[in-house]
Design goal:
Blueprint: E1 2-7, E2 14-19, E3 25-31, E4 37-44, E5 49-56, E6 61-68, E7 74-79, E8 86-90, E9 95-99, E10 104-108, E11 114-123, E12 126-133, H1 139-151
Antiparallel strand pairs: 1-2, 1-12, 2-3, 3-4, 4-5, 5-6, 6-7, 7-8, 9-10, 10-11, 11-12
């Protein structure tokens, strides 16, 4: 399944809108205030909570806990205090492969099978993140992981890729 994430730049709690190839809404990603702890919610198109994400630590070195109903919790460790961002998943066998800083990466199984390919593309809505997810059942978790990665502003930038800084 292909899902597009459009970063929202207007003031408010909405961080991303996720939509399908026809432009139909799939998910809305809401966030709380940026502090040492934070929360994000992935709401489905019925505005029901599909995934809860909580963060401990500053954005440069954080631990995220991702909770999807019916799945064991997944932890995502993020270290932005190094030259290339480092992400590690625990609680699931997936690994990152590719250039996370450029937002061009895959999530893969231990045998190398691709769970999700992630990149940046252009659509009528503007620059968006494009997610190609192999299995329908993995869509909410993959969107949640992507929202975490794509919400972080890389070192040396004023905004997360691909949104350009205003002003």
């Amino acid at each position: 399944m292909r899902v597009y994430l459009k970063q929202q730049t207007a003031p408010g709690r909405e961080l991303f809108r996720a939509f399908d190839a026809l432009g139909n809404p799939v998910y809305t990603i809401l966030c709380g205030e940026k502090t040492l702890t934070g929360k994000m919610l992935l709401l489905d198109n019925k505005q029901e909570i599909a995934v809860k994400i909580s963060r401990i630590g500053p954005e440069t070195f954080s631990r995220y806990t991702i909770l999807e109903k019916g799945r064991p919790s997944v932890r995502l460790y993020q270290n932005m205090a190094v030259l290339q961002p480092v992400y590690q998943l625990l609680g699931i066998s997936w690994k990152f492969r590719g250039n996370i800083a450029a937002r061009s990466f895959d999530l893969i199984e231990p045998d190398g099978a691709v769970v999700m390919s992630h990149g940046v593309c252009w659509r009528p809505e503007g620059n968006v993140f494009c997610l190609d997810i192999a299995r329908e059942r993995d869509v909410p978790l993959c969107v949640a992981i992507s929202a975490v990665v794509d919400s972080v502003i890389p070192p040396g930038r004023t905004a997360a890729v691909p949104v350009r800084a205003q002003g």
